[in-house]
Amino acid sequence: MNIGLIGAPQSGKTTVFHLLTGTEPDPVAAHKRESLRAVTQVPDPRVDKLGEMSDSRKLVYTTVEYLDTPGLEEGASKQSWFEGVFSGELKNADALALVVRGFELDGALESADPPRDIKRVQDELIFSDLIVIEKRHDKLQKQVRVKTPSAQETMELEVLERAKAQLEDGKPLRVLDLGVHEKKALRGFQLLSEKPMLVVLNLAEGNLSNALSFADKLTTEFAADGMAVIGLSAAIEAEIARLDDEERAVFMADLGVSEIARDRVLQASYKLLGLQSFLTTGDKETRAWTIRRGETAVEAAGVIHSDLAKGFIRAEVVHYDDFVRENGYVGCKAKGMVRLEGKEYVVKDGDILVIRHSG
Fold first, then answer.
1. pLDDT over 80 (residue 82)
2. Domains and CATH numbers, the chain
3. Secondary structure in 3-state letters for 17-46
4. Edge-to-edge, what's the strand order for the sheet holding 275-281?
5. How much is the average pLDDT of 29-43?
6. DSSP code at position 274
7. 39, 43, 182, 317: least CB-packed within 10 angstroms?
8. pLDDT: is 350 or 32 the higher one?
């Protein structure tokens, strides 16, 4: 999973990036206005527990790659920001995380206004996409004037016209109702307003206790735009990250915070993208694998290795909760909890799979 962080200068975006990735700020890089990239493991206590039960020699967690882009200023869609960052980096992001300032800042030209800042950035993304769509739409229209269009070209032109109307109406493409083939027609453009977006509301320390209510209010306000919102305080989270485990637990309890920012952002991102994890375990390795909700056993097999999907016969399936409660495969098999499932079985979050295959 790749997530691109965007936001206005002084929103705390880069601080959030370092919190999420566990990296340290580089004073030299901070002045170069260059993108930062880092990969972080997704914590999963289930991997730890299964590794212990299976006496695994290796534990492998799923990972997320974060891209921290230079600050996005108003009017950036008409400048070089999109030409550089979008064409080379953001286009490959699975989702965007928009960091908005929810705290007052000495010397800032404007007071904190998250709804205003969200709308501004969304308008920039929409305008950028509109430029791309109009360019392709005009080119395709010229082609169909001189020759009879193919069925594919006709469908693409219809999709482009719908997308163009959506963007001209000031609405992001992520909430445009498109079929599978229509989405495929737009996929090659890697449009920014089509990507799932998580809003990270960066609050002052004193407002941390109200983070949930602030986030809920924004979620309601921007529900029609298909955004999810979470609240955190990058400043206080940075302090939490520097503490040892015992001190961190006490400090978080005092603040009324049950999870660190990284875990909350990861959970929100997984939910936004419709992702889940299934597991494999044995003495060699215990591993978490990422798939989309609704994907089948044969698709899960393909995530492990393409050969497993090609030679798929059956999948042995037992859920993590049952596996732990019955102390492993022996106990689960004794109670009939290990099932044999076919290709069409829809994998659930926390399923432990053993793929039976030919070859």
1. no
2. 2-41+63-111+195-272 (3.40.50.300), 125-193 (1.10.150.300), 294-357 (3.10.20.30)
3. HHHHHCCCCCHHHHCCCCCEEEEEECCCHH
4. 59-60, 286-292, 275-281, 351-357, 312-319, 339-341
5. 79
6. T
7. 39
8. 350
